[in-house]
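Loading example: each entry is read as three labelled lines plus one structure line.
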Amino acid sequence: MIRQSRRAVLLATVCLAVAAAARAGEGSGTLAFDELYGKVGVLGLSFSDKLRALKGQTVRMKGFMAPPLKAEAKFFVLTKRPMALCPFCSSDADWPADIVVVYLDRAQTFEQANALIEVTGTLEVGSWTDPETGFVSQVRIVGARFDRV
Amino acid sequence: MARLAIRNLVARFPGLDQPALDVPAFDLDAGARIALRGPSGSGKTTFLNMLTGLARVPEGHVTWDGIDLATLGEGARDRWRAANVGLVMQDFHLFPGLSALENVLLPRRLRWRGAEKGAREEALGLLRRTGVPRPDQPVETLSRGQSQRVAVARALLGRPAILVADEPTASLDAEAGAAVGALLTDLARETGATLVVATHDPELIERIGRVAHLTAGRLAA
Amino acid sequence: MLRFILADLRRAWPGALAIALIIAFATALGITVTLQERALRLGSARAADAFDLVIGAPASETQLVLSSVFLQPAPLPLMPGAVMGELAADPRVAWAAPIGFGDAHEGWPVVGTTGALIDGLGGIAKGQGFARLGDAVVGARVPMAPGDTFHPVHAELAAEGEVHQGTTYTVRGVLSPTGSPWDRAILVPIEAVWQSHGMEAGHDKEGDARHHEGALDADQPVNPAAVAAPNAPGVPAIVVRGHTIADAYNLRQHYRGDRSVAVFPAEVLTRLYGTLGDARSVLSAVAIAAQALVAAAVLLVALLHVTQRQRQIGALRAFGASRGVIFLIVWGEVALIAAAGVAAGIGLGWLAARLISARIEAASGVAMPVEFAASDLGLVLGLLAAAGACALIPAAIAYRQSPAAALRG
């Protein structure tokens, strides 16, 4: 009995430690849409220093889920403004400044279109073509999970 | 091979001035046999509960071979009883759904480490010795006499040093009662166990030879 | 120890079975709600997979999607025929196909469209596509084979059984199964629909179509350019696929206006899933309440049972079983019954969802995938943990019983 309860205490301690570590990890990089790009130069947009610094790290971002193109999908577009608007229409550029593509671990259906959500995942920066859909994106959060705010 | 020494044993029930049991001193040699008589309410069951560690000793000492049950906790008394005491009760307490053999083996199997090797052979031998013809017979189909024979075999498995029986023949007819009584005394003699039997059965008392009377919690040899 | 539990269960099997069944039904309720809601979501999502963007006349977006993707008959307003021509010339468009509803054959909707949609839906499994106006391609669930002929009827007049005189189609091909309502559809060239409804290019006037019965020239070859002609008749809906995802979003924006509305079926479905999710939450709460009630009832039975068997438990103790063993026996017995109930409930719930889905599938053509997800494991583990925790209570009571007190009387 005593050995058992000691084990339980140990287990509880480990759980608390893991939870604390996870919380600390979540706090590591909060990113806002305004912080994605630096000055608009001759060659168009350039990534901001903060974005470069957070590359490969766990980040948190708040935004709106754009209306999804597919009802069951592995990805969605996160935008700065709630979306009756078009994320790709705000500028003539191929890649608008105020979107991030969010990739999930597996395909799922969505319920949160146009709702404010917070996404947590690993930041990827640089041009990448999704082999399944041919979707070319510049800034991504991968292995992501999200919750309504 | 168990010697009993009781000193200043007192048990009270809440709300009663008179103690339910008051035994200043009582001794039994190892291998001794004694019948316990007394009207109902005289404290027989309480006394047997104290002897076997089924109940806590509230005051005084019940010492078997130097082990004072008064100093043991509930778990320790359970372990001590499992190792040293064989019990036979008036209503058999066999478990339906199991065979005669499985009932004999049940107390062993319900220990953390399970039954030891050879327990099955020992149980079969005991069932033969107690005259139960079919070890695999479900106990629901046994007669009362047969049931008590299985209970006796169960009590003797592992050769306990102490054999305690509570009215073992009271629910049997004369013939079966005599047979069970004979089995108890014979087997106690064969294994050298100390035998304590609470009974009103004159034939069984005679067979045991020595009798103690319990009246209003007081013991008189 | 296990043998003792099993012997005990064997002896008391009717009661144990009844309790296990009650637990199974309570579990099945929750499982069915979860599985069925998921089947509806995944089934509808996959059925809409071929339809990235649907464009129609400004009206209800939901009705547009229900009519085009799920072939729900409803009168849709027509868009000017020029929209199709514009889309055909739009560089962002990979393919666009008009769809025209209104006819039926023995309950199977007859839909006018072009070869682009046949390819978009997954292509032909058997036979070939349209070459002439009298050709038809049937969905995988339509019981017709290449070579069969039929006369469609006006859907709204079907009750009166008015057959289009002089309109005969010949089945040329069968679509690959799509798991969508289109498996129940008969596809014909949209020009053929126009002709048979007297809506030839140039004199399309809303409202006069239904009185203007035309005759179909079945041997006239299909002319893809006719659909994109600026003076083509109006259509109720156009299915569009963009070259890229950005194109799809741009097209959606571009064609939302006074003249037309563009919508991703996925966004309509996503709104629907929100409602569906709310319904699931309510049903799940009902299921959890039922499970809690069952847990309470089972607990009561277990407690009665343990109290009733005080003497037997006391005897086990008297014969040398330790308190720990007693605890384990009682806990094991209750937990075993509960676990068996939960396991049976999972099977039962799956079976129920399968049956419900089969009925929906037969009625709508939407394939309903009844499947477990990783998240269900949490639900099942939660149920088992709750059952295990509940079993602790009778076990603790048995543990606390004194053997002497149990044997007395």
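The longest strand of chain A covers residues 116-129.
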